[in-house]
Amino acid sequence: MEHLLEIKNVSLNYHTLKDETKAIEDISLNVDDKEFVSIVGPSGCGKTTLLSIIAGIIKPSSGSVTLNGKPTFETKNKIGYMFQRDHLFEWRTVLQNVKLGLEITHNKDPENKEYLESLLKKYGLYDFKDKYPNHLSGGMRQRVALIRTLVLRPELLLLDEPFGALDYQTRKMVIQDVSSIIDKEQKTSILVTHDLGEAASLSDRIIVLSKRPSVVKAEFKSNLRKIPLIEDRKRTDEYQEIVDKIWKELS
Ligand code: ADP
Ligand code: MG
Q: Could you give the 3-state DSSP secondary structure of residue 146?
């Protein structure tokens, strides 16, 4: 069976003038349509590198990554990216920020304008559309960043520690928010995080990477996603078991 995303024996060496860093040794991984996969691993093990390879920004030294059977490095693909910093432009309003992706891709389809407005309405941002980002809370800013990505109708969403810069209370709210939006929009997602609780509670599957050069060290499945509230997921025995298992692999 063909998977939406197929990562086959990917390795990557960074070359600088002086030396070579082997970031990724040999990673194979498949992700199915609508699946939510988390990737955890020690700092510097190559998680961001792997996402960049998946996105087609970096060409792997060997191996291949295909989305819908097409290599991501050679194909103009529909992959959305969300980072720790929201990268909103302060001099553009919420609406202008959300439109940015469509402008860059010269997409003037009226259907997209409608979709954009429906997303803003659905996720409580329509009343703020003419405000500038500095008038928004950290949580709302991340929501704007997510909607900006969703407007482009990505087939795959890559999230690189998107909650890392938020304080504890905001973080809890934003995680619930982002995860509900991903569920509702049924987006296939890959989340990189150093927070084991986040990985265990948000995803269908958790991939544990080894230290650099990274390989897949372990893989765990979770059934928690069917519980709507993340707080409730975290109260289950299954949650505790998964966190314990990941923690053991990492220590
Ligand atoms: P992670 O996201 O897991 O913290 P990264 O993918 O950012 O790790 O980096 C993996 C390794 O590759 C690190 O040792 C890092 O220093 C190195 N690295 C990352 N980007 C570059 C680059 N552009 N040139 C050389 N080395 C890099
Ligand atoms: Mg990183």
A: helix
